Amino acid sequence: MNWHIREAIRQIAVGGVIAYPTDTVYGLGCDPLNGAAVLRLLDLKQRNIDHGVILIAGNFTQLEPLLLPLTPAIRKRVSTRQHGPVTWVLPCPPETPVWLRGARTTLAIRITDHPVVVALCERWGGPLVSTSANIHGRLPVTDALGIHNTFNGSLDYILHGDCGTKRASSIRDGITGKILRQERSLKQ
């Protein structure tokens, strides 16, 4: 697996878009600070930039520089894995690139303990874009064969592995804790 992680990181470093298993479904990822890579990823998904993307990391400190300061209680809430995968929506500085936040003043983040993602983020040295691997409006893909079929060779690298829940994560407001989207099952 080490060689595969190194190859995925090499592709990310040169502006590539990869697919990789996460704690939910397969994700499409790239360097979040490379606008051209994120725009290419959005184009592959046929997704509007206004929606923003999720950033994923193995620990909260990898995401903290991209967020406005949080109270200790909120920081603890969003940095601790609770009952399954949770995507948190948190305030971000105004200079956060539009290709990450979309038309919002917030950023969507998820902390994961999925070993592939943790290894990728550790090796990369920060968070990665992690948007579900699908054409916008269609069901997310949960296996490598589905990635091949959906994206037909247009990705720079596919990391093979098992997805966690094979369910879309719940999304919560990080400040209020309010559920914005329930975790949901995917039927393929």
Explain how this protein is built:
- By secondary structure, the chain is α/β, with parallel strands linked by helices.
- The chain has a single domain (2-185), classed as DHBP synthase.
- Helices cover 28% and strands 22% of the residues.
- It has helices spanning 2-13, 35-45, 72-79, 98-101, 115-124, 144-151, and strands spanning 18-21, 26-29, 54-57, 86-91, 106-111, 128-129, 131-132, 157-158, 167-168, 170-173, 179-181, 184-185.
- The protein has a six-stranded mixed beta sheet.
- A hairpin with a 5-residue loop joins strand 10 (170-173) and strand 11 (179-181).
- The longest helix has 12 residues, at 2-13.
- The two termini are 28 Å apart.
> Architecture, according to CATH?
Alpha-Beta Complex
Strand order in the sheet with the most strands: 6-3-5-4-10-11
Strand content: 15-25%
User: Can you count the helices?
Assistant: 6
CATH superfamily: DHBP synthase
- Fraction in helix: 25-40%
Given helix and strand content, the structural type is alpha/beta
Q: Radius of gyration over alpha carbons? A: 15 Å
**CATH topology label:** DHBP synthase
Question: Major sheet, described briefly?
Answer: 6 strands, mixed
Beta strand count: 12
Count of discrete structural domains: 1
Shape: globular
Give the averaged pLDDT, no decimals.
93
- CATH class wording: Alpha Beta
End-to-end gap? 28 Å
Order of helices and strands: HEEHEHEHEHEEHEEEEE
